[in-house]
């Protein structure tokens, strides 16, 4: 069965935050105080649903996010940062993550952003490379997990 992927509504957000908590806090040991932030309120959130159950999510923030999770001043409109990509254990390796990522890239393109960036967990680097992202910079720790910056030019 194929997941339905769309932008989230306000009614989806509790499930979005619940899935992120399960994947990041419970599954990866990310401190609970780091998982949610003030950027969630203004972000475009994507959801993937299988038979009405949320199995994947991600978000797009207008601007560059530094490795400490803060929006860099002066960057909105110049780059979109994709993050908080999460897929439930049961739905992994079924194309859900790619469908969520593709929707967020499409949304960044619709907003006429010239560039999309993300902070990829090092183990997921090849996933993002297959979607057209290129690594830049050095590997760094974010929430105790190795990450690498990645970016992709958008049509425009």
From TrEMBL:
**Sequence ranges assigned to domain N-acetyltransferase in this UniProt record:** 3-155
Keyword set for this entry?
Acyltransferase, Transferase
Which Gene3D superfamilies does this one have?
A: 3.40.630.30
Q: Which GO terms describe its molecular function?
A: acyltransferase activity, transferring groups other than amino-acyl groups
Which Pfam families does UniProt cross-reference here? Acetyltransf_10
Q: Which InterPro entries match?
A: Acyl_CoA_acyltransferase, Bact_Acetyltransf, GNAT_dom
On whether Flavoprotein is a keyword of this UniProt record, the answer is no
Q: Which domain of life is it from?
A: Bacteria
Q: Which PANTHER family match?
A: AMINOALKYLPHOSPHONATE N-ACETYLTRANSFERASE-RELATED (PTHR43877:SF2), AMINOALKYLPHOSPHONATE N-ACETYLTRANSFERASE-RELATED-RELATED (PTHR43877)
Name it. GNAT family acetyltransferase YjcF
